[in-house]
Amino acid sequence: MKNKNTFILTSYNIHKGMSPLNRQVKMQGIAQALETVGSDILCLQEVQGQNLKRNLQYNEYPDQSQHEWFGEFLHLQNSYGKNSEYDNGHHGNAVLSRFPLDPKHNVNITVNKLEQRGVLHCEVHPVGWDMPVVVLCAHLNLFEHDRIKQYQAISDYVRDEISPEQPLILAGDFNDWKKMSCDRLASSLGMTEAFKHCHGKLSATFPAKLPVLSLDRIYVRNLSIKRAWVHSGKPWSKLSDHLPISAELGLI
């Protein structure tokens, strides 16, 4: 049970609202499962802003953008950062919040033409807190040599744009499947990974049915970590190809 000085943040790659093998629309199931978690802040990756082809293909595929649809279902404010655009539509990252939400910037960290990637920068204002919390929702490349460039871009952005005193969260799908260097980015910025802090190791979140790879992380700075957990088993194993990860965070 969380208290009034803490909030729950969940990071989740929703696979564009489709089942792991793209055969079924899972929007309703994802929304209902997230509702049971009751997160105060959501960092979502692979959010479909528009997909005209799937609108025609599936009756249950919503006409409106997924960040707006989830926002209405869960009664959360929402912000979207478009990363990848194509003939039928576009997708990107989204931040949804129970608290007042102030969208700031969508940082382009694309380093090759095949993978358009970004970091969505928002500020949230927890009730009763003197200072807003900076939330960076990220989705990084599949290859290590690309991610190293992206770590540098994120590091430069944080140092240039965000005060060292401000509460900061960097959450998302880092695709750091070999666990080689993502922690180095956090270390250079003085950030702590929430699950590792609580359990002594990173959490396996992919593939959802039988998770073996630790791709999804929640890094924090100037915040206390009360607990952290992965949402495993049903229904999560059938909703997306990733499992969501959550942390309860508070003032230091």
TrEMBL record:
* Endonuclease/exonuclease/phosphatase domain segment(s): 11-242
Q: Which organism is it from?
A: Psychrobacter urativorans
Which GO molecular function entries does the Swiss-Prot or TrEMBL record give? catalytic activity
Gene Ontology biological-process annotations: GPI anchor biosynthetic process
* GO CC terms in record: membrane
Protein name as it appears in the record: Endonuclease/exonuclease/phosphatase domain-containing protein
Domain of life the protein comes from: Bacteria
PANTHER family registered for this protein in UniProt: CALCOFLUOR WHITE HYPERSENSITIVE PROTEIN PRECURSOR, PGAP2-INTERACTING PROTEIN
